[in-house]
Amino acid sequence: MTTTYGHLSQVLNDDLNNLKNVEGHFPFKATEYYLSLIDWSDPSDPLRRIVIPSQGELAPWGVADPSREHRYTVLPGLEHKYPTTALLLVSDTCASICRYCFRKRIFQREVKEKISDLDAVMAYLRSHQEITNVLLPPQSRSVVDG
Ligand code: SF4
């Protein structure tokens, strides 16, 4: 089960309005199990810091695509960076969203980077026999796993 801000208000003493401000840019999502592992009495709990939004995320630094994935995107949701490996983005969310994620841009509502044309992706894979493995990043696996 996934938790939203409504659920968090029961356990967080932080200023939820501030956190909502961050979520306006970078969505929040976490599973109930993950949240159950957090020591809520410790503001620096490492698990808490991984999934709970912080104002620091709004600091104006860094780039939205630090791995330059756009450079290797050959079709929406299909990256082909290394000759024998392709990467498929079949979803634009994770069961829990890590605040440090280098694909954070994908979780923003206005960003559409997941596969939009599966037939075209399959045709590309078939026509590139050098591709011997296809990677599904975590946000894709969360969908495949159901
Ligand atoms: S892709 Fe990985 S790092 Fe990014 S939110 Fe999902 S699990 Fe976390």
Q: Give the DSSP E fraction (strand runs of 2 or more residues).
A: 5-15%
N-to-C series of helices and strands: EHHEHHHEEEHEH
C-alpha end-to-end distance: 12 Å
Net shape: elongated
How many domain units? 2
Q: Quickly count the helices.
A: 7
Give the beta-strand count.
Answer: 6
Helix content: 25-40%
Summarize the structure.
Helix content is 30%, strand content 13%. The protein has 7 helices and 6 strands; from the N terminus they run E-H-H-E-H-H-H-E-E-E-H-E-H.
Key attributes of the depicted protein:
two-stranded antiparallel ribbon, alpha+beta, binds iron/sulfur cluster, 7 helices, four-stranded mixed β-sheet
Folded structure, characterized:
The chain is of the alpha+beta class and 146 residues long. The chain has 2 domains: 2-58, no CATH class; 69-93 and 110-144, no CATH class. Helix content is 30%, strand content 13%. The chain has 7 helices and 6 strands, in the order βααβαααβββαβα. The protein has helices at residues 5-8, 16-23, 32-36, 46-51, 69-72, 118-127, 138-144, and strands at residues 2-3, 30-31, 73-75, 78-82, 85-88, 133-135. The strands form 2 sheets. The protein has a 4-stranded mixed beta sheet with strand order 3-4-5-6. A hairpin with a 2-residue loop joins strand 4 (78-82) and strand 5. The longest helix is centred in the C-terminal third of the chain and has 10 residues, at 118-127. It is elongated, with a radius of gyration of 17 Å. 16% of the residues are buried. It binds iron/sulfur cluster (SF4). Residues 94, 97-98, 101, 103, 137-139 line the site of iron/sulfur cluster.
